[in-house]
From TrEMBL:
Protein name: Lipoprotein-releasing system ATP-binding protein
Alphabetical UniProt keywords: ATP-binding, Cell inner membrane, Cell membrane, Lipoprotein, Membrane, Nucleotide-binding, Transport
Similarity comment: Belongs to the ABC transporter superfamily. Macrolide exporter (TC 3.A.1.122) family.
Statement: the UniProt record of this protein carries the keyword Nucleotide-binding: yes
Annotated GO MF terms: ATP binding; ATP hydrolysis activity; transmembrane transporter activity
Source organism of the structure: Epibacterium ulvae
Gene3D superfamilies membership: P-loop containing nucleotide triphosphate hydrolases
Length: 228
């Protein structure tokens, strides 16, 4: 059951200008439900570009993106936005939680925006917070949480609407190593619980080694580093 498939993706910035950069030069990647792929790449190699194309936030110059069985190039802009909201969960290095709302409310709000009734949204928020060991922090605002706790809440928020794929850009990048380990465990629990597909960009090779597969972005192409 392939959730995301990228075929021969090419992407340049400032094409035809003196400052043109060819970032992706024929990237292929398939991710199955329940599979967690580590994306490792030196800074500037095009990790964010790749994740944004995979998550329908940006478009490739050429190549195909298939998400949850739909060929993205054939969809309208409106349909792409709907697919992104329904099927993709994003996690960034910095959590971007809403400071005036509690942890639980930060997880409830995206569900309400998606038409989930109050009660169901609250129940799901409580379930997700429980999975990452933060039930006792549900009424706290972000400023009252540690960095690691904030990031765990951000994971729950990304999964609030039960997406099919999780895309994460250095999700533990600004945490100290011991917090980072703990927070990564929470991420794994959420992914396994939801049988999610995931592409997790990380510089941390120990964390990468705990995923199902490692791919490396090098000179615009994806190279398989290990097979299970
Ligand atoms: P990474 O996430 O691996 O650090 P990015 O995907 O952010 O890499 O960027 C890859 C390359 O593309 C970098 O050289 C960066 O400077 C360039 N780049 C990224 N976004 C733009 C943009 N909007 N316009 C021009 N160049 C860009
Ligand atoms: P830890 O105990 O995990 O080291 P801290 O409480 O020291 O966590 O906070 C970690 C980081 O999160 C700090 O850089 C802090 O400035 C930042 N931070 C704290 N509250 C917020 C907030 N509401 N929004 C954004 N960043 C915050």
């Amino acid at each position: 059951d392939i959730v995301l498939s990228l075929g021969d993706i090419c992407k340049s910035y400032n094409r035809g200008k003196p400052n043109a950069v060819e970032v992706l030069r024929g990237v292929d990647l398939s991710v199955q439900a329940g599979e967690l792929v580590a994306l490792v790449a030196p800074s500037g190699a095009g990790k964010s570009t790749l994740l944004h194309i995979a998550g329908l936030l940006d478009t490739a110059d050429t190549g195909t993106v298939t998400l949850a069985g739909e060929d993205i190039a054939k969809q309208s802009e409106r349909r792409r936005t709907a697919l992104r909201r329904r099927d993709v969960g994003f996690i960034y290095q910095f959590h971007h939680l809403l400071p005036e709302f509690s942890a639980a409310e930060n997880i409830v709000l995206p569900q309400l925006a998606n038409g989930v009734p109050d009660q169901g949204a609250g129940t799901r928020a409580a379930h997700l917070l429980d999975l990452v060991g933060l039930s006792h922090r549900s009424a706290h605002r972000p400023a009252e949480l540690s960095g690691g706790e904030q990031q765990r809440v951000a994971f729950c928020r990304a999964l609030a609407n039960d997406p099919k794929i999780l895309l994460a850009d250095e999700p533990t990048g600004n945490l100290d190593p011991s917090t980072s380990d703990q927070v990564f465990d929470a991420l794994m629990t959420l992914v396994r619980d939801g049988r999610l597909a995931g592409v997790i960009a990380t510089h941390n090779l120990e964390l990468a080694a705990r995923m199902d597969r490692i791919v490396r972005l090098e000179e615009g192409r994806l190279i398989e580093v290990t097979a299970p």
